[in-house]
């Protein structure tokens, strides 16, 4: 799940700059302390600040969400300013890979839109299960590094409950894009890394949330259960949004892709609206468990 950018209407609403890291995809992290409100006007920051005033427990989740900044400048402007110089003489292979990736990304978000209502209901089912099986089980628990890992497990349970509705589409996307070739090595790495992360999310089993929290409490908060540690180690590095358009891809786009990009952008607005609403669900589950982030 990604950052709340629900008011965006641009086709570039989820265009990413190429982020650092070995896989070329951004990572989500849970900050140990709430940070000051970012001095930006992005709707995600505005919504996060609003949620902080209403529900302090939502701070960690809201700030952990994967930012999907809008491309403030169009691809042509980026080229003009030299940030992403036009790929003069782009090969037929570059063009074909770009078309294939954009089409695959559109198909993926279209599937996510079909399941969007059910995906929004999934965290509510987790909340209902917690209320039945382990309400307030961690009431009075400490707020420390281990509680943060427990919070990560809650986030993972929510994300996977939504993403697993789209597993066939995720697997098709991964198969379709993982080996696409570009002469631009950074772009190729970003696409491969993104595909690898989606593969992990598609195949990762959801955690046994109540059992894990209960085990942590039963051990006197001295040690996390091995299942929580193992889950966090796999989920957190792989957590990416459904739908990504690497910024460097714009170097190879042509007018022929504009329609697909416009449709993708419109769908992603709906997805980011839903992701924004998930912040409150996270707070509800954490409160019901009695967990501190």
How does the SSE layout of this entry go?
Layout: E1 15-16, H1 43-54, H2 58-64, H3 75-80, H4 92-114, H5 116-133, H6 145-163, H7 167-177, H8 185-203, H9 209-218, H10 226-238, E2 245-246, H11 258-289
Parallel strand pairs: 1-2
Helix-and-strand structural type? mainly alpha
Strand content: under 5%
For the secondary structure, the number of strands is: 2
- Described by the principal axes of the CA atoms, the overall outline is elongated
- From the N-terminal CA to the C-terminal CA, the straight-line distance is 18 Å
- Which bin fits the share of residues in helices? 55-70%
Number of helical segments? 11
Give the C-alpha Rg.
20 Å
Order of helices and strands: EHHHHHHHHHHEH
Largest sheet: 2 strands, parallel
Arrangement of strands in the largest sheet: 1-2
Poorly predicted runs: 1-15, 17-87
* Overall pLDDT metric: 78
Name the descriptors:
293 residues; mainly alpha; two-stranded parallel sheet; 11 helices; 58% helix; 1% strand; elongated; disordered N terminus
Describe the structure.
This protein has helices at 43-54, 58-64, 75-80, 92-114, 116-133, 145-163, 167-177, 185-203, 209-218, 226-238, 258-289; strands at 15-16, 245-246. The protein is 58% helix and 1% strand. Strands 1-2 form a two-stranded parallel ribbon. The two termini are 18 Å apart. With 293 residues, it is mostly helical. The radius of gyration is 20 Å and the shape is elongated.
């Amino acid at each position: 799940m990604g950052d709340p950018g629900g008011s965006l209407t641009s086709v570039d609403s989820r265009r990413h700059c190429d982020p650092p890291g070995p896989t070329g995809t951004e990572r989500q992290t849970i900050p140990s302390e709430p940070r000051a409100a970012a001095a930006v006007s992005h709707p995600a920051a505005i919504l996060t600040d609003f949620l902080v005033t209403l529900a302090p427990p939502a701070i960690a989740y809201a700030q952990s969400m994967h930012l999907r900044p809008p491309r403030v400048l169009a691809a042509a402007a980026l080229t003009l300013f030299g940030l992403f110089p036009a790929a003069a003489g782009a090969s037929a292979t570059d063009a074909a890979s770009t078309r294939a990736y954009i089409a695959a990304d559109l198909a993926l978000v279209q599937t996510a839109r079909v399941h969007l209502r059910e995906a929004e209901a999934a965290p509510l089912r987790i909340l209902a299960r917690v209320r039945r099986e382990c309400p307030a089980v961690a009431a009075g628990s400490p707020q420390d590094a281990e509680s943060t890992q427990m919070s990560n497990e809650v986030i993972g349970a929510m994300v996977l409950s939504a993403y697993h509705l789209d597993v066939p589409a995720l697997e098709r996307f991964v198969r379709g894009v993982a080996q696409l070739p570009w002469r631009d090595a950074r772009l190729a790495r970003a696409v491969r890394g993104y595909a690898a992360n989606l593969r992990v999310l598609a195949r990762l089993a959801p955690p046994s949330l109540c059992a894990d929290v209960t085990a942590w409490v039963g051990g006197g908060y001295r040690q996390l259960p091995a299942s929580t540690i193992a889950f966090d180690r796999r989920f957190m590095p792989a957590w990416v949004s459904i739908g990504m358009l690497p910024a460097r891809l714009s170097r190879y786009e042509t007018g022929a892709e504009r329609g697909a990009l416009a449709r993708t952008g419109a769908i992603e607005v709906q997805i980011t609206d839903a992701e924004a609403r998930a912040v409150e669900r996270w707070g509800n589950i954490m409160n019901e468990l009695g967990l501190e982030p």
